[in-house]
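Researcher: Re-running this chain for the archive, since the previous output was lost when a drive failed. Same request as before.
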Amino acid sequence: MFKIYITETTLKSIILSEEMKPLHARSYLYKLLKQQQVLSLTVAETERIKSHPEEVQKNPSALYILDISPSEALGIQRSYGVMCLSGERPDISTLIDTNDVHISNEQEKLGRGWDSVLDSVEKLPSNALLLTDRYLFAFRQPNAGDGLANIRDILDQLLPQQFLGGDYHVTIVFDDMSKHESYSFDEIATKLNRIKTQLRRDYPIMMEVLGITPDCSIYNKLHNRLIISNYFLVEASHKLAAFNADRGTARQMLIPMTLFTEGSLNGISTPPLKAIDQTITTLRDFSKSLSQLTDHNVYLYAVNGKRMERCMSMRNRLLK
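Model: Regenerated structure tokens:
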């Protein structure tokens, strides 16, 4: 859940400076502070984060604005995948969407494929990914959309080169009943886990796979094809198995979005953050319900390539 943690002295300084300006001249940072949940930190609490930066992962989707140097803030952000800014000159422009839209067509080249589509979001800090597409593994032929190949390309672009926060979390949700007839759930889970080694990252990756059925309570709530991280989402209007290398497999729009738009900060439109929250809330509620679920045949579940008889709680930190 998106929150803003800010050193209290920094917060007071920003508010005082901004409220001296006329309404039309106030910054997007000020508007963000007025719209979102803000928790102020004492100097002592700020010092604790400085001494124990791993604590930012307790709130993996938060924005931290701390009374620390720019180099210290950048170090925390790069190491733990949580957005951290120095209070000296906080710049939230990376959270304001640039309205990139990519339109693909069958068999037509679109830039470098996923490499081009994800350019506007791949540099944002991240500590987890969540991919949902009920028909992700409906095809095996590259021209029709090989789900495994597309997952590999997506992860290769989005997983950070550096991460010190323990396991990086990846969760993939699809419709097990709609997969290609030649696939088994176990094969998909095993091959997704094998992709981790192909990515050559020097940190551990937790690969969580959920195959739902039409009888699952969340089935109808996961119609949209999304890639979600803590500070962005990417929506595909038709399918995430969008490319065969750099050529489209379907006519569709692919839209990467950060958390806010200028319109949403000005109060005239809905922030993309709401779409992230809707999907995460759906999966979080499902995860919480698992311990009381009487019929565990409505889904299949695997972690790191190993099929689990039951899931008692999903592991992705975005759902905590």
